[in-house]
Amino acid sequence: MPNEFLEEFEPLLVKGIKEKRQSQYPNKCLLLAMCAACIGGTFQYGYNVSVINAPTEYVQNFINQTWKQRHQTDISENVVVLLWSTIVSVFTLGGLLGATIGSTLSVKLGRKGSLLMNNIFALLAALAMGLSYSVGYFELLIVGRLFIGINAGIGLCVQALYLGEIAPTSLRGAMGMGTSIFITGGILTGQVIGLKELLGREEYWPILLSTVSIPALLQLVTLPWFPESPRYLLIDKGDKEACQKALRQLHGSTDSEREWEDIEKEKNNLAGLQTKKPWQLFTDGSIRWQLVTVLLLSAAQQLNGVNAIYFYAEYVFKRSGIPNDKIPYVTLGTGACECITALTCGMLVECLGRKVLITGGYTLMGICCILFTLTLTFQDASPVVPYLSVVCVFAFILSFGLGPGGVTNILTTELFTQNARPAAYMLTGTVNWLSFFFIGLLFPFLVIGLQQYCFLVFLVVCFLVSIYIFFVIPETKNKTFLEIQNEFKSGRKKKLSYYGEEIGANLLSTSV
């Protein structure tokens, strides 16, 4: 039988299995493009969140020595703490600034171009922090942390845009989990590099802080080999040839046709519409609930108590009888937990869907808040109770990584179309960084005032968010951006029906 007739007589079941296999496994180029984008994006963010903890004592000694050389007197302990807290917290201010300019850069320079340009801030940060000790200026640490914060703010915004736009519809959730996987990988790497067996010694701390240049250099070497976002090329730039070439490179010749139809359909739907500014999203009634949803989830990601768990972790480990010199190694277990759950969520997100994972994650976190409050309250009731507290620490982190830690960014990508997505990321990034700063500022006072009962506050946050998600957010798995937008527009659940193998099928809705 001629080859051209083989496909016609191929059993439908076999064809369906082939299509399913194609949708489950990304093209090698697509996977490598994700790694190249993430290594200088969210990996950099996670790395800088954790790596600053190891040299705390050494940097404070450096500040004291520098002050004494300049003024021939010791600096007061309060001023040292103030300067150190400035070095740590200026990272969040830089992140806020980066989030506000990230969306503009992504429109002007493209997603790939913005990520490449963003590495300038990381290299400047590495130079400033690496030279601070040799030149005797602790102020360079503040400058360096500000630059690396800007880098993180831009990276979190633009990288998520890039991953969401290069991924096929069937793999968008799994690809979006790259953000969470590389954040947790960065946190774990920073914890490992900061051990005394590696660069955690006093004489190595300038080198430790300057290692932020390594992810930046890796991205500068690898990312240029991969194409720009196909959606950006066609919808924003109108370059059909470049878009088709990028799709073939990222998805292969077979799947690229399907993605081309989807992108072209979105382009036709957005014909004549300009890219929205952030303030325009507040006045657009058609995306009001999408905006409320992503802003709420972005704030909840910082206010759900995960920072409180990390604050209490050392106390819990000490009460459990773990020696002080072993606590840093146990803390590595928390980083490993986040990595494991991020990978697990990446494998489950296309099977269970976004809604199940994020609702279940917040519900489990709320339950952990109750149990953790009880174990901390009755620490002395039994020798077993401190170990139950340790279990609660790991259970809470596992619950966070299972849903809220990774799915939040995916939903921000999926709930908006091309002309509103950059502005949405700017707003969610701003809310995320402001919430980060807010919880860092007020959390110590919350702990002093409520002690272990502060987790009851986080319990309320987790349960309210899970209720909102359950009743408001539709499932977005395997739906195009236009289909998701239509569900929100109607305010009711709709049923999608696909005809044959056509990706851009019509949306059939029935009232419920």
UniProtKB/TrEMBL annotation:
One of its GO terms (biological process) is D-glucose import. The keyword Nucleotidyltransferase does not apply. It is found in: Membrane. GO terms for cellular component: plasma membrane. It comes from the Eukaryota. Keywords: Membrane, Transmembrane, Transmembrane helix, Transport. Signal peptide: none annotated. Its main location: membrane. It is a multi-pass membrane protein. It holds the Pfam family Sugar_tr. GO terms for molecular function: D-glucose transmembrane transporter activity. Coiled coil: none annotated. Residues 34-477 form the Major facilitator superfamily (MFS) profile domain. InterPro entries: GLUT, MFS_dom, MFS_sugar_transport-like, MFS_trans_sf, Sugar/inositol_transpt, Sugar_transporter_CS. The chain crosses the membrane at residues 29-47, 81-103, 115-136, 142-162, 174-193, 205-226, 356-378, 384-411, 423-447, 453-473. PANTHER family: MAJOR FACILITATOR SUPERFAMILY (MFS) PROFILE DOMAIN-CONTAINING PROTEIN, SOLUTE CARRIER FAMILY 2. Belongs to the major facilitator superfamily. Sugar transporter (TC 2.A.1.1) family. This is Solute carrier family 2, facilitated glucose transporter member 11-like. The lineage of its organism: Eukaryota, Metazoa, Chordata, Craniata, Vertebrata. The gene is slc2a11b.
